[in-house]
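Record type: monomer structure entry
Structure origin: computed from sequence
Chain ID: A
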Amino acid sequence: MIEDPPLMTIRRNFPRPTANQLAAFQDIPVGFVVDAMNGRGALDYRIKPISPDQASFSGVAVTCDNGPADNLAAFCAIDIALPGDVIMAAADNFEATAVSGDLMLGMANNKGCAAFVTDGLVRDIEGIIEVGMPCFAKGVTPNSPVRNGPGTVGQSIVLGGVQVNSGDVIIGDINGVAVIPFPKIQEVLRLLVDIKSAEADMDAKVKAGLSRPPFIETFLNSDQIKEMD
């Protein structure tokens, strides 16, 4: 027989990126970060900013697993968060109640959190916008959750189809949210140097009139094409 779990399991201490590493992700488009991870790492496309004007952020993940119709773990995650942290609130994709509203977001903002991200829903759009902190969710509902547990904080979760661990770097913009696993932070930063350069070069060429990228030019001139009348 399985025993009931504790109402909350909290891991407070986990590896964190350095201040220099975090600073290097400031103002980097999510698409560039995804390109540095072989085209993957972004959360479910339905997880979008509540306000497009409050979408850009980067910070350190503090994870919490709330389960459906509950947000006790999210409150506990906010309590242990440091300035610049991102609350990553898994809700098992539950869509009947909200995970958070403007009051919780206000408390997170008071702690100095950089953003709140959930695979569930939120409520109180006007209040969330007034708080001014980026909030990403799958949608909005007025229905409210309970605070019963059980839940976890600081442990590995799956949110938006991506595994997230506390200490990972989270970056978001109007296009969505990406997760940079802690062990890959330095590698991603190294790859971003070439990606930013290549993107800037191609952007300039497109604006100058380019209509056929080099790889298409090579492909169309190869023996892999069969022309038909």
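Annotation 1: The helical segments are 19-24, 30-35, 72-80, 102-110, 125-131, 185-207, 214-220.
Annotation 2: The chain has a mean pLDDT of 95.
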